[in-house]
Specification:
465 residues; alpha/beta; Rossmann fold; Helicase, Ruva Protein, domain 3; 5-stranded parallel β-sheet; 20 helices; 16 strands
Length: 465
C-alpha cells in the first residue's frame, strides 16, 4: 500500500476546516487540522508532515507568521497560503519569503489538488535527496570524514558531483588534512567502486624504484634474476589509482604519466609491448604545483591534465568548530581499539584542544587523542594528557638556565609579540644556515618540512631560488 501524504490545514473558520479536510481525505490524503498558528505549530513539531496549508488572515498570527515558524522548524516543509484577492500582494511576499505557492479565493478543487500534488512531490524529492546524501555519507568512503564546517560541506558536495564522472582530480592541502580519505570517498562513490583502489606514495621511492612501482618491469629488466612484475597501473585497471605527493615525481616519469592520461597505454620497464589500461587518476600534493611548473620542476601539460577538478582541503585551524566532532570520533575509535568502553574526555581537556594550533592538522589531533587514551587514568582524559608533541617543551634545556632572556624583553611587550618575533628570527637564521634548503632548515629547528613551509607563509618569508 502506498503511504498517504500527510497534510496540515490551518484556518480559524471551523466550517471551512471541515469542508477542506473532507475534500482532501476523499483524495487520499491524511489530514490534520488546526484553528490557529499555535495549535498548528504543536502539530508541526509532533507529526511527520508533507505539507502545510494555511489561511492568510487569522486572529492571532497570520499565515506569513506561521510560515516563518514552520520554516524555522523545518526549512524544507512546503507551505501553501490561501488568500483573498485583496491580499495577493501579501501572498506574493510570503512566496518570496519561502512559501511554496498561494491560492486566491475562490479557487477550484482541481486547482487546489494540482497545487497540493506539486508541493508534495517537490517535498518528496527533497527528502529522497537528503536520504541519498545521508546514505552516501554513511558508506565507507564518507564514514571517516568528520565535520560540519561549511568548508567541509563544500568538500562533500564536490565529492558527490565529481565521483560519478571519469575526470582526473587533484587534491591539495597541508599534510594531515585527509587527502587520501577524500580520494577513497571519490572512488567508493564512483562506478569504479567494485574495482581496485591503489595508493602510491610518490615521495617514498627514488626514480628507478618509482618507475618500476608504477609501470612494472619485464623479467631481468631491473637486475639479474628479477622476475616479471606488474605495476600499480595494471593492478588498478578499471579502478582508481591515488598518486600521493605527485609533486615529487621526477620529470622523466612525468612524461610516461602524461602518456597514460592521453593514450591510456604504457610499456613496462624493459618491455616492448604496449599495455592498455582504463584507470582514473586521483593525485594529491601539499606543494604549490603552479610554482613547481614555473620553476621547471613539473610539466605544465601534465599539471592541467591532473587538475581537471581541484579539491582544496582546509587546514584544521580553519575549521576549529569541527574539533569536538573529531575528538568524539577518535575517542570512539580508541575505545574499541583499547577495549575501554567508558573512555571519555574532560571539558577542560576539550577546551584546551580547541585552542591549540594543530599545525599537523587532523592527523596530529588523532595521534594526540590516541596517546592520551593510552596514558590517561580512570578512563578520563585530562588536560595534562592531551599536550600534542608539537607543543612540548624541554623545560630542562641548559641554555634557558644559563641565559635569563627576561633581561632582554621590555616589561610592556605582549606575549604574542615576543613569540612571533623570536620564531620569525629563528626561522630566518635556520634558513640562512642551511643555505635555504628547507629540509635541512626544518631539521635544524626540530620540526617537519611541511610545518616549516606553513610558518614561512605565516611570516611572509619568501622561498629563495
Amino acid at each position: 500500500m502506498k503511504p498517504m501524504p500527510t497534510i496540515l490545514v490551518v484556518d480559524d473558520e471551523p466550517n471551512y476546516l471541515i469542508v477542506l479536510s473532507e475534500l482532501l481525505r476523499d483524495e487520499g490524503f491524511e489530514v490534520f487540522t488546526a484553528p490557529g498558528a499555535d495549535e498548528a505549530m504543536a502539530i508541526v513539531r509532533e507529526v511527520d508532515l508533507d505539507l502545510v496549508i494555511t489561511d492568510m488572515q487569522m486572529p492571532d498570527k497570520n499565515g506569513s507568521a506561521l510560515m516563518e515558524e514552520v520554516k524555522d522548524h523545518n526549512p524544507d516543509l512546503p507551505v501553501i497560503i490561501i488568500t483573498a484577492y485583496a491580499e495577493v500582494d501579501k501572498a506574493v511576499a510570503a512566496m518570496q519569503a519561502g512559501a511554496f505557492s498561494y491560492l486566491a479565493k475562490p479557487f477550484s478543487n482541481d486547482e487546489l489538488i494540482a497545487t497540493i500534488n506539486r508541493a508534495v512531490s517537490h517535498y518528496g524529492l527533497i527528502r529522497e535527496n537528503i536520504r541519498l546524501r545521508e546514505a552516501m555519507r554513511q558508506r565507507a568512503g564518507f564514514a571517516t570524514m568528520i565535520g560540519k564546517n561549511p568548508r567541509m560541506i563544500q568538500i562533500y558536495e564536490l565529492i558527490e558531483k565529481v565521483a560519478p564522472t571519469p575526470a582526473s582530480v587533484l587534491i591539495t592541502g597541508e599534510s594531515g588534512t585527509g587527502k587520501e580519505l577524500v580520494a577513497k570517498a571519490i572512488h567508493v562513490n564512483s562506478p569504479r567502486e567494485k574495482y581496485p583502489f591503489v595508493t602510491v606514495d610518490c615521495a617514498a621511492l627514488n626514480e628507478s624504484m618509482l618507475e618500476s612501482e608504477l609501470f612494472g618491469h619485464e623479467q631481468g629488466a631491473v637486475g639479474e634474476g628479477a622476475a616479471l612484475r606488474k605495476g600499480r597501473f595494471e593492478t588498478a585497471n578499471k579502478g582508481t589509482i591515488f598518486l600521493d605527493e605527485i609533486g615529487d615525481i621526477p620529470l622523466p616519469i612525468q612524461s610516461k604519466l602524461l602518456r597514460i592520461l592521453q593514450e591510456k597505454s604504457f610499456e613496462r620497464v624493459g618491455g616492448i609491448h604496449t599495455i592498455d589500461v582504463d584507470v582514473r587518476i586521483i593525485s594529491a600534493t601539499n606543494k604549490d604545483l603552479k610554482e613547481e611548473v614555473q620553476q621547471g620542476r613539473f610539466r605544465e601539460d601534465l599539471f592541467y591534465r591532473l587538475n581537471v577538478i581541484h579539491l582544496a582541503l582546509p587546514a584544521l585551524r580553519d575549521r576549529m568548530d569541527d574539533i569536538p566532532l573529531l575528538v568524539d570520533h577518535f575517542l570512539k575509535k580508541c575505545a574499541v581499539k583499547l577495549g575501554r568502553e567508558k573512555l571519555s574526555i574532560s571539558p577542560e581537556s576539550l577546551r584546551l584542544l580547541v585552542n591549540l594550533p594543530w599545525e599537523g592538522n587532523v592527523r596530529e589531533l588523532e595521534n594526540t587523542i590516541e596517546r592520551a587514551a593510552i596514558l590517561c587514568n580512570n578512563d578520563m582524559i585530562e588536560a595534562e594528557d592531551v599536550q600534542p608533541e608539537s607543543v612540548s617543551v624541554d623545560r630542562t634545556a641548559q641554555w634557558s638556565q644559563e641565559v635569563d632572556i627576561l633581561n632582554f624583553i621590555p616589561e610592556s611587550v605582549e606575549l604574542n609579540e615576543v613569540l612571533y618575533t623570536v620564531e620569525e628570527r629563528l626561522l630566518n637564521r635556520a634558513l640562512e644556515n642551511s643555505g635555504h634548503v628547507q629540509a635541512r632548515a626544518a631539521e635544524l629547528l626540530g620540526i617537519t618540512k611541511s610545518l616549516l613551509q606553513y610558518k614561512m607563509k605565516k611570516y611572509g618569508i619568501k622561498k629563495q631560488k
